[in-house]
Amino acid sequence: MKDDQLRLTEIFYSIQGESTRAGLPCVFVRLSRCNLRCSWCDTPYSFKGGDKKSLDDIVAQVESYGCNLVEITGGEPLLQPDVHPLMTRLCDEGYEVLIETSGSLDIAPIDDRVRVIMDLKAPGSGEVEKNLWENIAELKPTDEVKIVVLDRQDFDWAVEACREHELFERVDEVHFSPVHGELDSNTLANWILEERLPVRLNLQIHKFMGVE
Predict the structure, then answer these.
(1) What is the pLDDT of residue 172?
(2) Which reaction does it catalyse (predicted)?
(3) Residue stretches of the annotated binding site
(4) Residues 74-100: what's their mean pLDDT?
(5) What is the CA angle 36-39-40, rounded to 5?
(6) What residues form the annotated binding site for Mg(2+)?
(7) What is the fold of 5-208?
């Protein structure tokens, strides 16, 4: 029987730049391919190419870093069905596993032990029509939602979406992230304070470190 394989862009060890785990050492497993083309995407190199790797090889490389926190990212990792046995295996071996997904594909099959960081695409991304709203019902209280904000229109859209779908009550954390180099973080912070929102300002630590 053929071993499960994934098309992999890279595995690397760095500081987690986002989510409630921001600032912690983390192993990133970046899978290849994406079904979206967000206007502000910072990892277009993951759209194509990549090398096929067995789950054994991927797990062995993750183990080599000696770090308990692992994030599965992309691209869009849910495009590859074999990501599910990878996540389950990592959970079985005692890792804390995060997955960052665009929210355009079904999250229901994800192992319940995995912390889902689900993006919602605001209008400024150019991909707002790709949001799969049915996913919201699948979010666990321990999951997180991230919305990247380009401008005031995106901010107002994000606030309405969070309130309409009761995201503040549904998940552990909601993050608003300014498009790096486009929206001043102080401006976004002031908007959050003015609206008295229970959201976390997400500044993408890795961008200030000079890495993607």
Answers:
(1) 87
(2) 6-carboxy-5,6,7,8-tetrahydropterin + H(+) = 7-carboxy-7-carbaguanine + NH4(+)
(3) 15-17, 30, 34, 38, 40-43, 73, 75
(4) 97
(5) 105
(6) 43
(7) TIM Barrel (3.20.20)
